[in-house]
Write a structure and sequence with these properties.
Helix content is 70%, strand content 0%. It has a single domain, classed as Four Helix Bundle (Hemerythrin (Met), subunit A), CATH 1.20.120.10. The longest helix is centred in the first third of the chain and has 26 residues. The protein has 6 helices and no strands. With 151 residues, it is mostly helical. The mean pLDDT is 90. Bound molecules: heme C. The site of heme C (HEC) has 21 residues, from helix 2, helix 5 and helix 6.
Length: 151
């Protein structure tokens, strides 16, 4: 009996983990994409407040930069499919113009790396400059590949 329960538990655990890696629906993929974008935005916003000396302990700056470093590799996989989700703002240009989109991703990843290189030095001016470049990389991609908010 105990053996059967053990085996059943194992099977259930396996089924759950398999379900977790199954291909998401386009809608779930879009929601996931938006969650990662919000995470980028959260860390980016925190860095922004620190750099401008408005809030946050600069000792924590490295943590937020590291979070961007950790997330940056995931960005390609976020755009495997478009969806019919009403608030999905990923433009068809992403799939129609993959080379330009890959360039936008590369710009962003390079900007994160550049920020990470200066972040540990604690030199606020250099961090500020690198952070502005990162902002441009986010904005550059949004301008070409994200639907403007309709009011
Ligand atoms: C390579 C392109 C690209 C880069 C780089 C990029 N984004 Fe985005 N971002 C998008 C696209 C496309 C969407 C729309 C996604 C959707 O609606 O499915 C988006 C959506 C968002 C959203 C809205 C999420 C929501 O709730 O719907 C925020 C906030 C955001 N991005 C912030 C950022 C920040 C901050 C950075 C830089 C640190 C960044 N993005 C870098 C392409 C990019």
């Amino acid at each position: 009996m105990r053996q059967t329960i053990k085996r059943l538990t194992l099977l259930i655990t396996l089924a759950i983990s398999l379900a977790a890696v199954a291909e998401p629906t386009p809608e779930d993929a879009a929601k996931y994409r938006q969650s990662i974008m919000k995470a980028l935005s959260g860390h980016n916003g925190a860095i922004s407040m620190m750099v401008r000396g408005k809030a946050g302990d600069p000792d924590n700056l490295g943590n937020h930069v590291q979070a961007l470093v950790n997330l940056k590799g995931e960005i390609e996989s976020l755009f495997e499919q478009s969806s019919d989700l009403e608030d999905d703002r990923a433009l068809p240009a992403i799939w129609e113009n993959p080379e330009a989109f890959a360039d936008a991703i590369e710009n962003f990843q390079a900007a994160v790396e550049a920020l990470s290189e200066v972040a540990n030095g604690g030199e606020m001016q250099a961090i500020d400059a690198a952070h502005r470049e990162l902002g441009k990389a986010c904005k550059g991609c949004h301008e070409d590949f994200r639907l403007k908010k309709q009011d």
